[in-house]
Amino acid sequence: MRALAVSLVLLVASVAVGVASGKSVLRAPDGVRTGLKGGSVVLKWRDNAKGESRYEVRSRVGRRTATKRLRANATRHSAAFPPATRVSFRVRACARRACSGWSRAVAARTPSAAPAPGGQQGAGGTPAVGGCSVLPADNPFNRDVSALPVDPRSDDYIRSIGADGFLHPDFGGGGQYGIPFEVVPADQRRVPITFTAYGDESDPGPYPIPPDARVEGGSDRHVLVVAQGECKLYELYVAQRSGDGWSADSAAVFDLRSNAVRPKGWTSADAAGLPILPGLARYDEVAAGAIAHALRFTVQRTQRGFIFPARHFASSSDDPSLPPMGLRLRLKASYDVTRFRGQSRVILEGLKRYGMIVADNGSDWYVTGASDPRWDDEDLNQLKTVPGSAFEAVQTGSIER
């Protein structure tokens, strides 16, 4: 008993010395609360610890848990979840080898997915986002190409991409895949943009990019924002938070009410110098029953040239059998789509009328959509049975060098 008493005295004394000398005092945070911002949960708390090296936030959805490490003195954390998700959080402070107890658990539920808006339409029946027409009705993206002549080099192009390859939807996965975009109000605060690679071919800031803007997964890290009121599209490539703003390898601004294109030879957030958003398959359009614009897709190898409205190439090859940036393909009229259902059927019917545009170097036949938790992966998997030989290149203009 005497030994135990001595040990307790020594333990209390060591804690007292630690407090007096300014060492870590790891108290669990309190005042923990949640809020919602779009599809994200914003968690806030009071920093009660002293000398901690990090904070840890543990989230739980059903039986699945995840732990996120944050910097010392953190007092908030934001995380995105699919619609109608109930998630609970606990927070604790940690030093190098020890942590406080967890805070009390707090819970939040993200809003249910909004019903499909019937496919927003802008002026002239064009697609629309946030009340803004996605480019004028006579823009090349919105052009019906079902009656255009086949390009003389169509067979060469299809062989180079892979006639025996298959279409691949590069979106789905409960919203994990695809390129996210968001609509911000006209008074969204504008922040500086630092360019890290192609600043001489980028539109200078500031841009109305929120600090918690969604970033595409993978190495491209695209950020897409539509500003209401002015109806301008802001797109970043390899985006990272930087101080009060963002950094990007390149960035571009497009007036969605105009047919203006990039200066010849300029890139954008896409290798072809094209806007990205107008070429995304969007859930609201598919749910409404029609995609009325060209889609964006990638191929591994391209030639050193581009077709309007593309303005930039990303290749050193002069091989004429390789597709140039901006090449338009369409699904052949003879290809039978009656065996397809649901979302895939709508996408394929759109590809017959409006086709798809070579926009970047990447995996062959990967067609891009907006990230959205409402995509049905089982449905989209039907697209993986459509062979490259079902497509043909159409004539939309001459190749520029």
Please give a structural write-up.
Among the domains are: 24-109, Sandwich (Immunoglobulin-like); 123-180 and 266-400, no CATH class. The termini are far apart. 12% of the residues lie in helices and 28% in strands. A hairpin with a 4-residue loop joins strand 13 (223-227) and strand 14 (232-237). The chain contains 5 helices and 24 strands. It is elongated. Mean pLDDT is 90; it is low at 1-21 and 113-119. The protein has 401 residues and is an alpha+beta fold.
Number of strands: 24
Sheet of most strands: 6 strands, mixed
The helix-strand sequence is HEEEEEEEEEHEEEEEEEEHEEEHEEHEE
Please state the structural category.
alpha+beta
Shape: elongated
Number of helices: 5
The low-confidence runs, each spanning 5 or more residues with pLDDT under 50, are 1-21, 113-119
Helix content: 10-25%
